Amino acid sequence: MDSLPFINLHTHRKPQSKDEIVVRNAFLKAPDLIDSINYFCSCGIHPWLLSSDFENDLIHLERLIELKQVVAVGECGLDRIKGPELIIQQEVLLKHIELANQCNKPIILHLVKTYSDILEFKSRFKTPWIIHGFKGNETQSKNLINAGARLSFGPRLLHDESLQQVFKQTSLENIYLETDTKPLGIQSIYKKAAELKDIEINQLKVILTANFKRDFLLVLPNE
Ligand SMILES: [Zn+2]
User: Fold this and answer.
1) Cα(183)–Cα(57) distance, integer angstroms
2) DSSP reduced 3-state for 134
3) What is the average per-residue pLDDT within 173-186?
4) 41 CA from centroid of ligand 1 (Å)
5) Cα(178) to centroid of ligand 1, in Å?
6) Rounded CA gap, 209 and 214, in Å?
7) Domains identified in the chain and CATH numbers
8) How far is the centre of ligand 1, averaged over its atoms, from the C-alpha of 148 (Å)?
């Protein structure tokens, strides 16, 4: 890789170009399937997919997160709109945090209407915790970053003007960019983000690559 990569912190697709490094959400795929892929992924139980048999899913997850391609735990988290009652989601989230701490890997969080609930967990996190698809306001952004969170901004950044304002106020050392489920190139999100911050795309790549190495303790391909 001659130039710095575009890092896509949370996507449901494989890398779409040679200069893209992804963390693909692999949910709870079979270990041999994950063993055969040659890009990074994350594994966890999405709150929408929480079954009554989550104890078994957690045992499965414990095996998955040991694999070297699995660089993060998640997405997991809390959702007030969809999924089982919050008390169950909290119990399962805590298990994910323990697993992340145990394997010393970051955790990728799905949070819907729960930006204040997550603050109650802040002392539990021993590894970086990243809120994917962040769409909160400036106060929430500040409170979360002060508590130690990183914020990952997705496709919404392209058109949501109030989120763009929040993004402008958020320090680059605490952010990531992602495409999530949208069939977009990560390049388009970098372009918008650089424009909003009034910096060159390359400068943005330097900072986000440094963030990624810091949080994921990774040596990137071709280094
Ligand atoms: Zn997702």
Assistant:
1) 29
2) coil
3) 97
4) 12
5) 9
6) 9
7) 6-216 (3.20.20.140)
8) 21
Query: CA 55, CA 95: separation in Å to the nearest integer?
Result: 10
Residue 219 — very low, low, confident or very high, per pLDDT cuts 50/70/90? low
Q: How many CA atoms lie within 13 A of 115 on its CB side?
A: 20
| Token pair 């320090």: residue | 171
Q: Percent of the chain beyond pLDDT 90? A: 87
Select from 195, 155, 216, 190 the least CA-distant residue to 20: 190
Whether 220 shows a pLDDT value over 80: the answer reads no
Q: Tokens 């603050």 map to which residue? A: 119
The predicted model scores a pTM of 0.95
| Tens digit of each residue's pLDDT (9 = 90 or more) over 160-169 | 999 999 999 9
- The rounded Å distance from CA 1 to ligand 1 centre is 27
